[in-house]
Write a structure and sequence with these properties.
Elements: E1 4-10, H1 14-25, E2 30-34, E3 37-38, E4 41-42, H2 46-50, H3 53-71, H4 87-111, E5 114-125, E6 131-137, E7 143-153, H5 173-194
Parallel strand pairs: 1-2, 1-7, 2-5
Antiparallel strand pairs: 3-4, 5-6, 6-7
Helix pairs in contact: 3-4, 3-5
Bound molecules: flavin-adenine dinucleotide.
Flavin-adenine dinucleotide (FAD) is lined by residues 10-16, 33-36, 46-48, 52-53, 56, 120-121, 154-156, 173, 176-177.
């Protein structure tokens, strides 16, 4: 870690890591600060790669294959035995995809000379030629001030807590991806029921 960069990006999601990589390719000295820990490991990729787009689509893919095997193959003259869902294996496959993609982002940052700073970033002073960013390391919570000519805030967003709707708590990001899968299966069953001949 240096104490001065051309660009500091706060947030290592799709918004942040793309900007950091491109700036690195253009020859700037770049740091990307990301605080996320996923399954006990610091992780790049933001919501999208860790708990959003990618895991939900991985699970949807599995649900789709299950549904098609169970209900669509007979029409093609293909018979199967009992078809069962092994949720543990579905989740393990999803985790493998997440790990591969987030690891790929880390390799891209490294390959383009971007320093991945694992911890919290706070813009302390955004005025003047040298902006000040406070970096708090995940590992030991030691605080350092970094200066940068440019700062990009790509911190994403978090849902607000609605006190009257306590049930919202169970719809956490971790549950959203499996829920998407479940909704798909339910909808598909309903659709098949409506169109039964
Ligand atoms: C279930 C689900 C499915 C989705 N599916 C799709 C889809 O199919 N297609 C699609 O286009 N979009 C989808 N999205 C939306 C997509 O995930 C977001 O649009 C995208 O992740 C936003 O990227 P971002 O970089 O702006 O923010 P994020 O991905 O949220 O990344 C921001 C990162 O900044 C980090 N951060 C925040 N504050 C700090 C700080 N102070 N210091 C250091 N780090 C910090 C956070 O830890 C986070 O990792 C889905 C979202 C969900 C929840």
């Amino acid at each position: 870690m240096k104490d001065n960069y051309d660009l500091v990006v706060i947030g290592g999601g799709p918004g942040g890591y793309e900007a950091a990589i491109r700036a690195g390719q253009l020859g700037m000295s770049v740091a990307c600060i990301e605080k996320r820990v996923y399954k006990g490991e610091p992780a790049l990729g933001g919501t999208c790669l860790n708990v959003g787009c990618i895991p939900s689509k991985a699970l949807l893919d599995s649900s789709h294959r299950y549904e098609a095997t169970k209900h669509d193959l007979a029409e093609h003259g293909i018979s199967t035995g009992d078809v069962a869902i092994d949720i543990e294996q579905m989740i393990a496959r999803k985790e493998g995809i997440v790990k591969q993609l987030t690891g790929g982002v880390a390799a891209l940052l490294k390959g383009n000379g971007v320093d991945w700073l694992q911890g919290w970033g706070t813009l302390e002073d955004g005025k003047g030629a040298d902006k000040k960013v406070k970096f708090t390391a995940l590992a030991d919570e030691v605080e350092t001030t970094i200066t940068a000519k440019n700062v990009i805030l790509a911190a994403g967003s978090v849902p607000i807590d609605i006190p009257v709707a306590k049930l919202m708590a169970i719809a956490s990001l971790t549950l959203l991806a499996p829920l998407t899968s479940l909704l798909y299966l339910t909808f598909r069953r309903y659709w098949c029921w409506c169109h039964r001949s």
